[in-house]
Structures are given as C-alpha cells and as structure tokens.
Design a protein that fits this description.
single chain, alpha+beta, Cyclophilin, 2 domains, eight-stranded antiparallel beta sheet, 8 strands, globular
Length: 231
Amino acid sequence: MKIFLNTCLVILFCAFLSCKGENSSTENNKENTLDKTKNKLEKKVEKRWDSLNESNVEAFFTEYGKKNKETKVIIKTKFGNIKLLLYNDVPVHRANFIFLTKIKYFNTTEIYRVAKNFVIQGGNSDETYTLKQRRLYGNYRIKPEFKKNRKHKYGALAAARDWEENPEKESNPFEFYMVHNRNGAHHLNGEHTVFGEVIAGFDTMDKISKVKVGVDEWPLEDIRITVEILE
C-alpha cells in the first residue's frame, strides 16, 4: 500500500511539472505572438500603399487625380475654420493636396508663418510624424502649373517653394499659403503656383493675422491645424 501511495505521488508530481511546463510554454507562445503582432503593427506604420517618389510625381498624381476628384477641403483651427476650393485646371497640385489630406499629413502641422497684411502660411511643424512623412516621400517637388487666370488675389491658395537653387520654380508639396492682403499679392504671379482659393472663413484669417509673432513671423503660440475633405 505504501509503495502504491508513493507511486501515485510520483505520478501526480510529474503531472504537475508537465502542466507547469505547458503553462510556461503557453505563456511564452503568447508573448511571442504579442511580439510578432507588435512588430507587424510597427512595420505597418512604415508600410506605404502608394508608389509615389521624387521620380514619378507628375505621373502618380495624374492617375491619383482621376480617382480622387474632390475639390473642397476645410482647414480647422482654434480660431475657426477656413474652407478652400481647389482648382481642376491645376491638376497635379490639386491631387497632391488631396493626397496629403487623406493620409492626414496636415493634421500634425500648424500655421507657422503669419506675415501681417501679406500671407498666412501652413503645412509644417517640428512634430516627429511630420518630419517622418516628409522623409518617407523624399521631399519631392512639383513642377509649376502657372495659369494666366490664376492670380494672387485676396484669398488665393498657393504653394510655397524654395527660392534658392530652384530655377524651375518647383513647388514644395507640403507647404501652402493664403493671401491675406485685400489688394492681393500680384508680385508673386508667375513665381508660385496658385491652385485654389478661400471660399469661406475670411474672418478666421483676420483673427489669425492678429496673433503675436516673433522676428521670423512664427506665431508665439502654436496654431495647430487639421485638414479634412468636404467634397
């Protein structure tokens, strides 16, 4: 009887060790699964669905524009909203703005320049995501799409650009400005591509124009923006 009890105890102890080993193995499997899932999510953040690069800008946005025909967007700020109409006769710039809006690039940017009685400029920031997106797409440029009927009138929406080492006047795809001078800024005609205009929210622009800025015209208090598609 004593031998039988000892045998049972040994069997139970072995079963316990086996069960513990299985639990440990299960926990390890769970941890490995979680790690794999996390890695997949991290890779997904880096993964791009598009083929845009600095060599195929015009071709990419020509095709993208055919499938994404929206022409109205809204900029939301703490001072109010600004509604924009994007021009169809400036197809690459329009498609680019719609593309950046849909990937939510602008939603970590801000109004970073307020030049009194001149322009209000946005589309950049020091946020990690913003810088990451710009690097991800190689800081591509867009060829100018100058149109005689698209002038720097009051409320005009235009693309910012580098003035140095840019003889072809290619646009910076990420940064834009809106003319806030009632008389326009016609000295910029033929220098920057005008690709849209403000259709509502001039009062919001007035409020923004009154903020305090530094010597570099950067607002002393951040003016964050989000941009959404209207139609």
